[in-house]
Design brief:
Layout lengths: L12 E7 L11 H19 L6 E9 L2 E11 L8 H18 L4 E5 L4 E5 L15
C-alpha cells in the first residue's frame, strides 16, 4: 500500500448564495441546469487557464419578512490539490457568480468570505414580498 501524504495550507472558505427564482417572478430555476452551467464554466477555465474551481452545492431557503425563497449555496475552499492565491481565487469565484447572475436573471448575489461579505448587484429592485405595497 502506498503511504498517505499530507498537504496543508491556510484555510479559505467562500459561500455564494443564489436564489432559485428568475428575477422576482414565480418561475423556479432548475438546479440541474445551474449545475450544468457551472460545469461548462469549469471546463472553460480549465482549458483556458488551468484553473480548477471546485464547488460544493447545497440547498437552502432564505427567509426575510414575506420572502421565502429556495436558494443554492455554492461552497468553495482553496483545494490543496489545485491551490490558488487568495485574491485570484476570490476573483474566480466572483466571475462565476457574475456569469450565473446574468444567465439566470438574478438581481443580486451575495458572497461570504472569512474577511468580507460582497454583494454583486445588477438591479436595485427588491423582492416585493420584503417591501409590499402599503394598503390604503
Amino acid at each position: 500500500m502506498k503511504p498517505v501524504t499530507r498537504k496543508a495550507m491556510a484555510p479559505f472558505r467562500a459561500s455564494v448564495y443564489m436564489g432559485l427564482q428568475r428575477g422576482y417572478g414565480e418561475e423556479l430555476l432548475d438546479k440541474q441546469e445551474i449545475i450544468s452551467r457551472i460545469q461548462q464554466y469549469q471546463d472553460t477555465r480549465i482549458r483556458e487557464a488551468d484553473i480548477y474551481l471546485s464547488a460544493a452545492i447545497s440547498d437552502t431557503t432564505i427567509v426575510l419578512r414575506g420572502q421565502h425563497e429556495p436558494h443554492l449555496v455554492l461552497g468553495f475552499i482553496n483545494y490543496p490539490k489545485f491551490p490558488m492565491e487568495e485574491n485570484a481565487l476570490k476573483s474566480e469565484i466572483e466571475q462565476l457568480a457574475t456569469t450565473l447572475m446574468m444567465e439566470f436573471a438574478q438581481n443580486r448575489m451575495v458572497i461570504a468570505y472569512p474577511d468580507e461579505t460582497v454583494m454583486l448587484e445588477q438591479s436595485e429592485d427588491t423582492d416585493w414580498r420584503i417591501h409590499p405595497e402599503p394598503s390604503i
